[in-house]
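Anyone have tokens for SEFIR domain-containing protein? Sequence:
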Amino acid sequence: MLEHPKVFISYSHKNADYENKILEFSNNLRADGIDANIDLYVESPAEGWPRWMENQITNADYVLVVCCKSYYLKCYSSNSSKGVSWEVNILYQHIYDATSQNTKFIPIIFEESDEKYILTPL
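Reply: yep, here.
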């Protein structure tokens, strides 16, 4: 395992409390020496959000996908949010390009009841 792995956290924006939970999770990873990154650390990337998300996923050693009902529904809904949809499309493409060998994308759940919302390729 890498000494200081670079990690990107993909999650769904649900509400302020949930975002604080994600921020705390990321900060705890950083305190443990993991180079964790989330969109909450960036106000407005110069390259724009789509390119920023792609760069984060591509350059990360691991992508932690925080699976929950909100994330799952945004993935499979025609009215989905732009961020989750964009990240999931990149995720699927990476796994497809790796001939379904997934060593980069790791599902994370905060509640046991969210296990059913882990995306199929993960």
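The chain has one domain: 6-117.
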